[in-house]
Amino acid sequence: MKIITSLILILLMQTAAVCHAQQTQEKNPKMSKEVTEILKLGKDAIVASALNSIGGSISLENFTSATVLSNGEEVYVSFRNQYKYLPINKINYFDVGVNITTQTTYKNSVANPYNFTTERAIPYFNLTEDIKKHISFVKQAIGNLDGFEDDMIIRDNVDFYAIEVVSDAQESSYKIKKKTGEIYDEFHAYLEPIPFDVDDSEEFKEVIFSVIED
What residue stretch is flagged as signal peptide (predicted)? Predict the structure, then answer.
């Protein structure tokens, strides 16, 4: 069940990333009456409702983006942190998905090292000024990231950062030396396409609120 939930979340987060990367003039797909009524509330109200469903002291400050998506039958809010930085011996929730229609929440934790666990409640990521400095160093070491829309996991270590990037077509990992910014131990693998066709009418797409009709 956890694997299935993780796959659902990853697929929807990637959908949200693609939506942000593309400028489209297309109208929203045909909406059911229930979805239409939800969307009339507006993006801010829908996002607030999704945050309330997550519970706790969670807020938009825990994420770098919030995207409302729909396939015409359901409304889904994708909360995302594109750059996921983790100190040593740390575990966080970075991305969360909330299905407004079914009141279902999907979330998946990321840890450093991979097998690190805790008996305490897993906290949500909080982007501090110190973390921004680590992320900035990594981005400068990599160089040109124009148009980069994939998720990047940055695991801190004593002398280096371990980087992991997964897109719908490729999986990459490498290390960056802290002292010099040198990139080494690179690994790249091309992923096989999804072995089944996705019906376009069932695909979740970012909602264009400016074209919602009353």
Answer: 1-21
